[in-house]
Structures are given as C-alpha cells and as structure tokens.
Q: What sequence folds into this?
C-alpha cells in the first residue's frame, strides 16, 4: 500500500505522455467522458442488467445494488476524466469494507468492474462504428485507463480482505490459552476452540514456562472445548506432554472428543505415556490423588 | 582425561551426589564428566545422583546420549539418577528432535530431585536406612 503513492506520479506521467503521442488525446478523453455522462442512465441500466444476468452480487438487495452501481459508475467516469487513482482506491477500500461482511467474493467485485468496462467499450463501438480510425484512437485512450481502474479495484478489495483476515488472526491470537493454577502445584489448561499449529506452539510455550513458574507437578489439559485437531497438532500435543515430563510434571489430558480420540489413534502417535481421563472432573480428581490431596465436604454444610 | 578446570562440580550430600553443570560441555568434556561421576559414585558409595542442567540452554544429541549412559552406568553401580532443571525451551527442543531421556527420571529443580530420591526406596539420603539394608554396597 505504501508503494502506490510513489507509483502514481509515474503512471500519471505515462498517462500524459500517452496523450502527447496521440495529439488531441485530452480532447478525445473529454469527448469520451461527455459521452459517458450523457448516456449515464442507459449505460448504467444496461450494466445492472448484465450484473443480474451474470448472477453477481446476489447478496445485495436491488436498492443497494442500484445505489452502489450509481456510485461505482460515477467514480469510474471521474477516474477516466482525471486519471486520479487515489480517490478510486479510497472509494474501493470503503466499498470493500461495506460489502465484505455481506459475503461478496473477489470474483464478483472484479466481475462487475470488468462488466462495466465492457458495457462502456460496447457503447464506444456503437458511437464510433462509422469511423474506424477514430474508434481506435478512442480505445487507445480508454483501454489503459479502464484496465488500471479494474486493477485498482481488485487490488483494493484484496487488500481490504487481507486486512480483515489479519485483524481476525490477531483477535484469535489474543484469545490466549490461559494457564491457571488451581491448587499448589496443580495447573489446568482449558483449550477452547480450534487448535492450529500457531496456537499449539503458543500453548506449549505458556505451559512449559507455567510449569516452571508455578513449580507444577501435575497439569490437566482440558480439550473439551476443542472440536478437532489435525495430525500436526496432535503430534505437537504429544510432544508437549513429553516435554512437560522432562520438566518433572505429569500431564493429564481430559475431554478428548470421539473425533480427536480417533485422530490420535489413526495417526498412530505413541499414546502409552499419555494419561487421559474422560472429563475435567475426573482429571482433577486424579490430579489431586497424584498430589496427595483429599477433598472432603465439611459436615453440616449444604450445597443446595 | 584432558586438563583444565572442571566445568561440572560434583558435590556430595549424604549418600547423594549432586552434579551441577555450569556451562555447555563439548564432547570431550562430557566424556570427562561421565568418567569423574562414575568414579565418585563408587568412591562415596552413593545411592542417588542428581544432575542439574539448569544452566544449559542447549542439550545436543550427544549430551542427551551421555546423560542417558551416565544414568545407566550409575544404575549398574547402584545409584538412581535424576535429571533436574531442564529449561522449557530445551525440553521442547529435545522432544522435537526425538531425544528423550529414556528411562531417566526428571524433576523440575534440585529440591524436587531430592524429594524424588527421598521417596525412592534405597536411594534416599538417609544413610542409616541405607546401611540397614543388607547387601547395599555396590
């Protein structure tokens, strides 16, 4: 994104030299823009129809689509006129921000811009059909500008999309894996949500430093809240258990879902050293037994 | 073996030997350490050995192998070896590279290691208990 402002004067210069080569280019372009402004309603209508025929932007209501197509059309013509891509970039990013949450795909956005380019090109063919050399000149002026617009919109859309993905990844990372001391020398590690390799790595790091910090002897990892693990993560989990053992802590894994149990068995990881117990309650009871705690209810107390 | 100051201090505490590794050892220093330790087990009639590797931020495959060999030799000479103080990063790297400690018990730190030996019959630091056991001399 940082490169574009630098790139821009260059393309602008290219643009201008292009006009210089084809004397009267500015004139042609203003003619072109005037033509597009004049037939705005008709061309926009045609464009909207083609969008519908191509089944694009189905996630939007007709009203929304009419509003968006109008503003895209106006922006498009304006960029053709001024050659200023920055405003378009800004608009495209803004548009992407609005439509990405509604499930609009990259191919749809690129598709509608290309459709608009084609609709406008057709109208130029129609207008200049009697004068072939003039048509060529007009297309020479039109095509590079139109392609650059399509390019800019696509890039802005993808940039915006990537920004959202990055934001979400950060959010996921912040849903950290807490290491909680429950009793002296006993830690629990509840894992909620899908474990990917990045989270698994983070988990290992936090668990091993947690063992040292709290001088833990027993760790209960509860994966009730994790629906699935893949092979790499399962292996990582087994390695974490081994590494904990090297640090003198024994690990009890609880809440293995049937699916995860199946994965672990299928990939053939060595489970003989894994101490697994059905649920978190059982795991805590076992941990207390290992540590020599006995929990008794005080006489006379009522829990319900 | 080779000269120079020892990079491992081996201390006697009752019937336990505590070997504290101060810095990363190269292969010949590891061999020297192995040699010294095994000798001292016989000399002091030790029943337990604690090897403290808390100062190491790297344990390579030869070091891991040597530690396992020391433990095995110590067992043959009648002492139980506990490895203590493995750093979190070292622990995970060792596991990743598939170099576990085999049958050698591990503990968090020196204190835990001593507790583990004390809990183990015959390897505890109580010398009267040891002497009371018939045929306990290696």
A:
């Amino acid at each position: 994104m940082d490169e574009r402002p630098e790139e821009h004067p260059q393309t602008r210069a290219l643009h201008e030299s292009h006009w210089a080569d084809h004397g009267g280019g500015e004139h042609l372009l203003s003619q072109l823009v005037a033509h597009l402004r004049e037939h705005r309603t008709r061309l926009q209508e045609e464009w909207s129809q083609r969008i519908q025929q191509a089944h694009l932007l189905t996630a939007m209501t007709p009203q929304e689509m009419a509003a968006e197509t109008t503003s895209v059309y106006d922006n498009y013509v304006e960029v053709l006129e001024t050659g200023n891509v920055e405003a378009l970039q800004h608009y495209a990013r803004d548009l992407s921000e609005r439509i990405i949450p509604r499930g609009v795909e990259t191919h749809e956005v690129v598709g509608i811009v290309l459709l608009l380019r084609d609709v406008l090109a057709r109208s130029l063919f129609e207008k200049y059909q009697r004068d072939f050399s003039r048509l060529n000149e007009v297309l020479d002026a039109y095509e590079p500008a139109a392609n650059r617009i399509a390019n800019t919109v696509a890039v802005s859309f993808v940039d915006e999309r990537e920004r959202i993905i990055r934001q979400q990844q950060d959010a996921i990372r912040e849903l950290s894996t807490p290491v909680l001391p429950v009793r002296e020398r006993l830690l629990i590690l509840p894992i909620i949500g899908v474990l990917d390799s990045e989270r698994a790595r983070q988990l290992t790091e936090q668990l091993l430093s947690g063992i040292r910090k709290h001088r833990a002897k027993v760790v209960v990892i509860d994966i009730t809240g994790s629906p699935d693990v893949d092979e790499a993560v399962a292996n990582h989990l087994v390695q974490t258990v081994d590494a904990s053992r090297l640090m003198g802590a024994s690990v009890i894994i609880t809440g293995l879902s049937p699916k995860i149990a199946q994965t672990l068995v299928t990939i053939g990881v060595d489970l003989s050293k894994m101490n697994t117990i059905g649920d978190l309650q059982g795991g805590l009871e076992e941990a207390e037994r290992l540590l020599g705690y006995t929990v008794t209810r005080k006489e006379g107390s009522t829990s319900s | 073996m080779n000269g120079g100051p020892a990079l491992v201090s081996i201390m006697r505490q009752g019937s336990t030997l505590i070997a504290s590794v101060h810095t990363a050892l190269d292969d010949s220093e590891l061999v020297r350490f192995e040699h010294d330790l095994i000798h001292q087990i016989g000399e002091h009639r030790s029943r337990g050995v604690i090897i403290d590797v808390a100062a190491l931020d790297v344990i390579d495959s030869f070091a891991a192998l040597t530690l396992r060999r020391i433990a095995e030799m110590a067992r043959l000479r009648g002492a139980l070896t506990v490895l203590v103080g493995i750093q979190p990063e070292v622990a995970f790297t060792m596991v990743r590279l598939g170099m576990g400690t085999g049958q050698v018990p591990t503990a968090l730190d020196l204190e835990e290691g001593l507790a583990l030996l004390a809990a183990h019959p015959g390897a505890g630091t109580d010398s009267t208990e040891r002497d009371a056991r018939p045929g306990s001399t290696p």
Summary: Chain A has two domains: 3-173, 180-291. Chain A is about 65% helix and 10% strand. The mean pLDDT of chain A is 81.
